[in-house]
């Protein structure tokens, strides 16, 4: 088989966002066309055209391989319609079912079609204990087209029955093809690089080259004159989980000692036996496959243990010997009880103070996520956030906080005594939601503190990335510009919904750990000092605040103390049990706070953590390191498929639509002009440029589906879908629901969603047809109420003076902790019914109404009132227009809980 060929512009290689499913569709399309040809209703030209377009990609995959493709080409060229149809069907089914990973017959060129259809069961469930995980290894070597079969045969001869895994090589002959293979082929787990390969592909790949340039992966952007080391660096930037091996016939000792070889797992002398390489490859994958805690937990469950501790359910005897709760055992199975224990010895470990397999599992998670340290948390990311606040924030410290963030951050500051300086995100009033916090607002808050001589009190910037609705910060730019104002700021990025992003080369740079890694690399580059000094010269000695606000600030690399914390709800986007969370640390000063960090762990973590939760965190890390890249690519493709099918459907689109990036993010925050993932003419290069440059981007896996145009409010539609159609959503707004694709979704899920939306749309049309003019008028009025008569979103007003005793004159921070606990005294509080005339009178004439607690409506799901906040007319108007049932912190029968003005005065400190 030849090298990968150029791809027609109608089927471009740059549309990688939809490649996983598109490959299946292309093979299925070829199979259908060949079948029609064999039946006399199709043409050989059609089949040949489809085959040529498909072959352009297939050199980046081990299966079907050169031999099968050559056989298929020969049958097409020689007019063997039936033979071509049969072979195309067999290959297509093997790719869709993934049977080629365990069935050697799928690789044979001789037809062996069975009478029965192929096994469509999930491979990992269908093959039991005899299953050996399958992966592919990229081999970058000169003359790969000529030497490919020899390389494949040599590696296959090295296989042994005792090998834990089985793999197939994928030979390519150039730098460009290696990058393309790494992007396209999610099955790759290792890369072997021989010296002497070309930089450019023999095929004409102009779109790929444009993409490589935009991503900084072209020849001009890759540092160094050593092509193998440059390729290793580029591959790690695309997929950091890959093991890379270099076979050289030069002085391998010198190469191994080169600092640029840090990305290479092992350097081998090329003339030595390939067995050493084979063993290294298996060992590398085994290192990622190992799950220290889960492995020990399985071994523990197999041992005959007598338990004399306070956990009767352990070993399951109280369950399976019971006449009354045996059904629970039958439902969950025996292993979950055999693996339960409150012991921290005998092969297990302590989550609070790990020294054994949990410690090792956390170290492996740190490696996988690009962190220095990782803490497993079994109480959810709410607890992870509170741990960070308690460990790093002291009473009186100022924390710049998005008011739209999860309530755990607000409560964390109450517990720590930090003073929140609330910054509002940009509003999306039409959809009753907020976006993210503009960088200009964050910089202004820091510069205001500096002007008051209070910048030393600013301890942390705390932001949600990505937001519930999918807004992603330009994390690197935010941190760099903030560090230019205060070089020792701590950053807490709540990435509860974004943990999966580590495994996407497009999303990774916008994660906290990805941005921190980039900043660290920049700090070591001498060019960083030059850039900083040049900007300082341009700004002058005393630049105005206005000048600093309009300038993209460059921090002093010699002064930066990079301190970055990231929390992720592993259970929200990876295969972990509910409440499984990870806390990631990349803090140059962590050694100075480690003791107090452990105190925070002792404070918030349960002394009886669930073993299954810990094991699932261990397992989630294993899965993402070995197949996360492909799983995330599939989740993105699923989301794009939903967007396309909903917005383009002639009936569904009359009543429902998924909002585009341009509708979710105002123009001023999309500097590249990026409109949407599916905008005509948009390609991968446009998306990469947007991810690099725009202030905010939209997570493609999060879809805001507008349902108000169908006459449903968000809560009503969510309930309808769950109760009547067994389709579950998460968040709602006044006129929308949030759909989230994840690594669990399939195209069958998409088909079901589209079927249901079409059914609902047709029912709306039928009801309108029956209702006549009155029905149409009522429907239009309902839509107007949901889509136009929306309440303005209330920004944070200010803290009452009683709780600003230690605040600046112009900066809005306040002592929320004192306000929170002052509400504990019943005689110091009062209640006012929301719609009472007294509320309006006090808004007009005073005294001011002071919130005694957090008030959090669902939706929108963030506090519209916090303890100590002066309640504004906008907040009351918003509350009165809310038509949701769930409002935390508000009892309708009693009304608003307020701190009495005379009681508040007693808290004013002189």
Automatic annotation (TrEMBL):
CDD domains: Orn_deC_like (cd00615). Its cofactor is pyridoxal 5'-phosphate. This is Ornithine decarboxylase. Keywords: Aminotransferase, Transferase. SUPFAM superfamilies: PLP-dependent transferases. InterPro entries: LL-DAP_aminotransferase, Orn/Lys/Arg_deCO2ase_major_dom, PyrdxlP-dep_Trfase, PyrdxlP-dep_Trfase_major. It comes from Paracoccus broussonetiae subsp. drimophilus. The keyword RNA-binding does not apply. It holds the Pfam family OKR_DC_1. It comes from the Bacteria. Residues 291-517, 564-739 form the Orn/Lys/Arg decarboxylases family 1 pyridoxal-P attachment site domain.
